[in-house]
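Q: How do we represent a protein-ligand complex in a form that can be generated token by token?
A: Start from the inputs.
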Amino acid sequence: MRHSAIYPGTFDPLTLGHFDLIERASHIFDQVIVAVVVNSRKKTVFTAEDRLTMAKASVKHLPNVKVDSFDGLLVDYARHKHIHVLVRGLRAFSDFEYEFQMALTNRKLAPEIETLFLMPKEEFSYISSSTVREIVDRGGDIGRFVPGPVKRHIQRTIKRELGEAHGHHH
Ligand code: COA
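Then emit the structure tokens for the protein with coenzyme A bound:
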């Protein structure tokens, strides 16, 4: 039997912390599906398409990792895939309350699905997508916080947007 796990998230954008967790999960499970939520309850800065593209580019060298997107309830997606392990990261104590609530809610909705917590490498424990977004917004260098493909995609996206803005003025 193949053991698979789903690593769900908004990935707005995927960071080195997320990537560290994906690598760890890929060593434990035969297959890992990074599941990008399409309609997040959070308002995202990057479109679902961009978030998916960045995740795919970051994991393409990992043979047992796939990227997919989902809408609706996470447990419905997991059931549909016949996967009963969800992986989430715990960076610090402050993550606990949110993760605890989500894991127990998911367990009430789908008792057969288990949430497994992994800890990212401590040097990534302070990284978050929102700090990355803030640095992007202010024109800083995100190279130490995100995988190379994410950095390059964001740079291209910004150029494209600047080009469009430029086009409007003329
Ligand atoms: N390394 C770095 N950062 C991490 C991290 C790690 N290992 N783990 C979490 N984070 C950070 C992210 O950077 C992000 O930071 P931000 O809040 O500053 O943007 C934050 O923690 C959480 O983002 P992410 O990891 O992308 O996941 P999420 O909490 O947004 O994902 C879903 C939530 C998608 C799992 C959840 O909303 C869901 O399942 N939605 C579907 C609907 C559903 O089923 N709801 C019922 C669930 S109770």
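The chain has one domain: 4-166. The first strand starts at residue 4 and ends at 9.
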